[in-house]
């Protein structure tokens, strides 16, 4: 079989591959991954590398008793990041570039577009983008939290054809293979539902990573909805990468949507977080909310949270039914003021002059829960 016809691929490598013993970076498992990247590029496939491992790589530089301290963890990330990038750079004979992101970068539309443009420019000039979360500066409010989901967001931003997520097992099993000898590997997943998540179980226990199989399923769901073929493979064996290059499936293949979400709708659904909520009347026709011109202050009964112009908000009914996520053209303060006006004519005239409450260019419909 010939190599797959990928134009662009994103590969995610975790901390356990970068620093297996938390004693700095090791090239032991990275050599086969680097060779895979080299061969992809030789075949005309552009590659984006999403690499965890900065905290694990820098751990050996700090006393054990201090490693639970948040400030020390950030210092570990800062020290380990340079070692990690240097390790990757030594494995290639072409230039690479470091991109450190937070979720705040990705959920802001203007910065997200800037990230896309930077990735495309690097790839066009044959520079390998190496992406990681900026653990040195991120906070609970600003972080993605795991590089599985980050890799899916990057794959969407890069308009990738395939996302390859490296794991410590061959793929998704119907039960935990570490605990059950009769566990069976799922070679193909047609669609991701509650039963697939049930197989993933909870978060990983122990180890040096922050994710687990569940975060990999979450990442796969983000990617396939953008039309991206997604694979979970065993990153510790060279055979996995040889099989991929031969057009074979070495792990679990998640098939993409036949009709992928549009880029801006995907960003709104899977990347942008709602900064607040707008509650509309219980009898409000949810089909109208898809037309931003139809959502006026007269339908709004409450505004929750604090948000600014351009922030993403959630529009829902009183009973909790989620209608859409959308870009707000009003701040929460101004929207509260207008919605509380007893004079409906004032509100109507104001909205007529300033425009619709939400932007129809960035509206993502949500399923009822």
UniProtKB/TrEMBL annotation:
One Gene Ontology term, aspect cellular component: cytosol
Residues reported to bind substrate: 52, 135, 147
One family name in Pfam for this protein: AA_kinase
Catalytic activity line of the entry: L-glutamate + ATP = L-glutamyl 5-phosphate + ADP
Main location: cytoplasm
A GO molecular-function descriptor: RNA binding
Gene Ontology biological process terms in this record: L-proline biosynthetic process
Compartments where located: Cytoplasm
Pathway: Amino-acid biosynthesis; L-proline biosynthesis; L-glutamate 5-semialdehyde from L-glutamate: step 1/2
Keywords annotated in UniProt: Amino-acid biosynthesis, ATP-binding, Cytoplasm, Kinase, Nucleotide-binding, Proline biosynthesis, Transferase
Enzyme class of the recorded protein, top EC level: transferase
Residues where ATP binds: 12, 167-168, 210-216
Family of this protein: Belongs to the glutamate 5-kinase family.
Its job: Catalyzes the transfer of a phosphate group to glutamate to form L-glutamate 5-phosphate.
Cited HAMAP family: ProB
The protein's name in its UniProt record: Glutamate 5-kinase
The organism of origin for this protein: Alteromonas australica
Origin organism lineage: Bacteria, Pseudomonadati, Pseudomonadota, Gammaproteobacteria, Alteromonadales
